[in-house]
Amino acid sequence: MNIKSHSIIINHKWCKQCGICFSLCPKNVLAMGEDGRPYLKNPTACSGCGLCELRCPDFAITLEGAEHD
Ligand code: SF4
Ligand code: SF4
After folding, report:
1. How many domains, the chain?
2. Ligand 1 centre distance from Cα of residue 4 (Å)
3. Which atom of ligand 1 is nearest to the CA of 10?
4. What angle do CA 23, 51, 65 make, to 5 degrees?
5. pLDDT at 59 over 70
6. Residues of the domain holding 38
7. Separation of 50 CA from ligand 2 center, angstroms?
8. CATH number, position 53
9. CA 16, CA 20: separation in Å to the nearest integer?
10. Rg of the chain's alpha carbons, rounded to an integer?
11. pLDDT tens-digit profile of 8-49?
12. pLDDT at residue 6, as a whole number
């Protein structure tokens, strides 16, 4: 059995509400909250691609992935 799970951790203190992460997420996992910061709208759809973590200019997103065989 191969299980993959990914956790997205968003540090709202560092987020400057630029919108890059939820604009580029290919799986629409992230969406803009009422405060302009991202929230996890659809966390189970995350593919673990890492784009959000890579592209956030303020290092406010951390992707934690786990893979088990
Ligand atoms: S890319 Fe980073 S700074 Fe920009 S909205 Fe997303 S979490 Fe906030
Ligand atoms: S790792 Fe990829 S699929 Fe998951 S939230 Fe970030 S950009 Fe979206």
Report:
1. 1
2. 25
3. 7
4. 125
5. yes
6. 3-63
7. 6
8. 3.30.70.20
9. 10
10. 12
11. 999 999 999 999 999 999 999 999 999 999 999 999 999 999
12. 81
Any domain includes 69 = no
The pocket around ligand 1, CB under 6 angstroms, is made up of 10, 15-21, 37-38, 56, 58, 60-61
To test the ligand 2 pocket, which listed residue (24, 40, 52, 64) has its Cβ within 8 A of the most ligand atoms?
52
Q: Is residue 68 part of a domain?
A: no
* pLDDT for res 5: 67
For the chain, what's the residue count?
Answer: 69
**H/E stretch holding 10:** strand 3-10
Q: pLDDT at residue 4 above 80?
A: no
Q: What are phi and psi of 31, to 5 degrees?
A: -140, 165
CA distance 43 to 6: 8
* β-strand partners of 38: 32
Residue 21 lies in a domain: yes
